[in-house]
Each structure stands twice: as C-alpha cells, then as structure tokens.
Amino acid sequence: MRIPLRKHYRAFREFDGFDDATCERLLKRARRAQTPGAQLLRILAFLPIALFVLVIGAVWFLMMVDAADHLLRDSGRSLWALVGSFFLLLISACAPFVVLLRVTDEFRRRDLRRELERTRCAKCRYGLIGLPVENDAVKCPECGEVMPLGDLSPSAAALIRAGAE
C-alpha cells in the first residue's frame, strides 16, 4: 500500500533495493515504452470519469453555495456562520479534485503493477529487475530459468536493462 504524498514506486517491494533516482529512471523508461494505443486507451478511460466527477462536483458545489447562503441568512451573518460556510464551500470546491487525483493515482499504480508483472520469471514469478544481463538474457536466481530479453515486452526488457545498470 502506498502512503499518500509518497512516490508510487515505494508501494512495490521490487524497487526497495534502488535509490529514488534509479526508480525515477526505471519509471520513465517504462512510460516511454508504452505504445501510443495504450496511452490513448488510458486517456479514453480517464475522460468519462473526470467529466462525471467534475459535473457531480459542480452540482455539489452549487448545492453547498445555496446551503451556505441559507445558513448566513438564517443566522444573521454571525462570525461562526461565516466561518462554517467558508469551510463548507472550500471542502466542496476541493472534493472533485481530490477524487480525480485519487483516480489518476490508481491508474498509475495499476500501470506500474502491470509493468512489474511483465518483468517476473515465467516459471517461478521471481522479480528480475536488478539482475545482471548477460548475452541479452537474464538468469533467474530462484529456479535457474534463462529468460532472453527478446521474449519479453519492450518495456519489460527496458526495465530489466535499466535496473541492471
């Protein structure tokens, strides 16, 4: 599980042995290796969610403006009513953006998990990132299986090569 406001890669034990600069380099290579079709699919999946959250957030914000207006009219504009209505409007204005940040965070985590699954040994599922690359292949230390990097996806091969540097 990722701690909020921390780096995405710190949620995965495969990256524990690397410093932050190496992890950032690995993630950049994985992002560059994604096909344009996969990137388009990700955008198309995110747009309806974003529109829905923003529309619901706008409706919620307008309802809170009305509620704050009634609170101020009924209370005679006291200090506590002003403070309460300010926080009510502030929270209702920020809520859609917090939801969208959470959704994008989930997309990134899912993409990273998918990339890491591609870098595992086909036989025993041992993580191959950080192992030495010899003759364009990686030998699994767990089961001894030799995995040619040409058999893996381009992004997985790039991650393994970058981790071996």
Task: Report on the architecture of this protein.
With 165 residues, the chain is mainly alpha-helical. It has a domain at 34-118. It contains four helices and three strands. It has helices spanning 20-32, 36-75, 79-118, 154-164, and strands at 133-134, 137-139, 146-148. A hairpin with a 6-residue loop joins strand 2 and strand 3. The chain is elongated. The two termini are 27 Å apart.
Observed structural traits:
elongated; 4 helices; 3-stranded antiparallel β-sheet; 63% helix; 165 residues
Provide a short characterization of the protein structure.
Helices cover 63% and strands 5% of the residues. The chain is mainly alpha-helical and 165 residues long.
Percent of residues in β-strands: under 5%
Q: Structural class of the secondary elements?
A: mainly alpha
The number of helical elements comes to 4
| Strand line-up of the largest beta sheet | 1-2-3
Topology as a string of helices (H) and strands (E): HHHEEEH
Low-confidence parts: none
Record field, number of beta strands: 3
What's the overall geometry? Answer: elongated
Give the termini separation.
Answer: 27 Å
Largest sheet: 3 strands, antiparallel
Q: How confident is the prediction overall: mean pLDDT?
A: 76
Gyration radius (Cα, Å) is 24 Å
Helical residue percent band: 55-70%
